[in-house]
Design a protein that fits this description.
mainly alpha, 14 helices, 0% strand, extended
């Protein structure tokens, strides 16, 4: 290949690399805004995806028309999901309200228990300080200052918050109605919507979409679904242990927070159970310590039994690639990166297997090879 041919080839490679770079930047910076903007449509599509199999069953077996069946199933799905969400939010909000109301008394109880525990330990081990009341008094003043600042901020912004809340309620009602209408449309006119997309979407985007749907979305959806199932199982196990065996006052809330933290890699249930067990040990509640240790072991065993089957089949990555994705995600955006690092790694792996990155790799190799030849003398 002559010099002119190489120059033209280099221009094409650089143009493609620039195009991929611009596309990557658009995905990073523009995609989140587009996701938020089209969120009602995405939710409507998810609802329609859940309702469509039932509509097809009604259409095939009971011979009900798709439009009528779609309306029936969408309403039923919304009633079911809305009822479950209402119960969950109500139970959580009620316990949060009770916890906030009881925080001053709870703080006094914990302080008194710890002071008594420290005095008891001092009698057994003289090197341990006997009285930490001065430290607690200092913390009392700090907490009082924080509480006063918080209430002052509430007073100054109460009117604006009322107006903002009213606007939010109106927007939520409008978006809910639009989402329901879109859900019905996606179910009732499913074939027409698919034909329209096939007719007007360019071939390049179709190929990209097929790769995304057939590999990435299924893998990421499977991974998140598996993590959610594990979180739900852990939540109910902890709810039974905290509520039935320990008679904990905030069993629902503590179980929910612990199960959510178990979703985060490297955190797990121990981040809540371990300090709680230490506190119970210091206050002499040894039965609760045993129950908490058993709860931790049960959750650990259940997690280890479910994770290889549910998550392992969905991830499809080696342990090193999984850890590398989590490490890079954490270094880039912190704790959130620990969660989204694995799905992003799965997407990149799927794209690599489909040959999406092959032109980029081949072009970079050509540029590097020609540059190495050029600098020789």
């Amino acid at each position: 290949m002559g010099n002119e041919g190489k120059k033209e080839l280099h221009k094409k490679i650089l143009a493609n690399l620039l195009l991929y770079l611009v596309g990557t930047l658009l995905v990073i910076f523009l995609a989140p805004q587009l996701l938020i903007f089209f969120m009602p449509m995405i939710i409507a599509w998810i609802i329609a995806s859940i309702a469509n199999p039932v509509v097809m069953f009604l259409e095939d077996k009971i011979k009900i028309m798709r439009k009528h069946g779609g309306a029936i199933v969408i309403v039923a799905v919304l009633v079911l999901v809305g009822g479950l969400l209402y119960l969950a939010v109500y139970a959580t909000a009620r316990e949060v309200y009770v916890l906030i109301k009881d925080l001053p008394y709870l703080y006094e109880d914990i302080r008194g228990d710890l002071l008594n525990a420290m005095a008891e330990l001092h009698r057994k081990i003289p090197i341990i300080p006997e009285n930490l009341d001065g430290l607690f008094k200092e913390k009392d003043q700090e907490i009082n200052n924080l509480v006063l600042t918080f209430f002052d901020s509430l007073k100054t912004s109460s009117l604006s918050k009322v107006g903002s809340f009213a606007n939010s309620v109106i927007n939520m009602v409008v978006l809910t109605i639009l989402t329901l209408m879109l859900s019905y449309f996606f179910v009732a006119e499913r074939d027409k919507v698919k034909d329209t997309f096939k007719r007007y979407i360019p071939e390049g985007i179709k190929k990209f979409w097929n790769v995304a749907v057939n590999t990435c979305l299924r893998a990421v959806g499977g991974y998140l679904n598996a993590c959610f199932k594990i979180m739900v199982v852990i939540f109910f196990i902890l709810l039974i242990i905290f509520g039935v065996f320990m008679r904990a006052k905030y069993a629902w809330l503590v179980a929910l927070i612990t199960a959510v933290l178990d979703f985060f890699p490297f955190l797990g249930t121990g981040i809540i159970i371990t300090p709680w067990a230490i506190y119970c040990f210091l206050t002499g509640e040894y039965l609760k310590v045993i129950i908490l240790v058993i709860a931790y072991v049960i959750c650990l065993v259940v997690h280890r039994l479910l994770e290889p089957k549910l998550v392992g089949d969905s991830v499809g990555m080696s342990s090193f690639a999984t850890l590398l994705s989590m490490f890079i995600g954490y270094r880039l955006i912190g704790m959130l990166g620990l969660i989204i690092g694995i799905p992003v790694g799965m997407i990149l792996k799927a794209f690599k297997e489909q040959g999406v990155f092959e032109p980029i790799v081949r072009g970079v190799k050509i540029l590097v090879q020609d540059f190495n030849e050029y600098r020789k003398y």
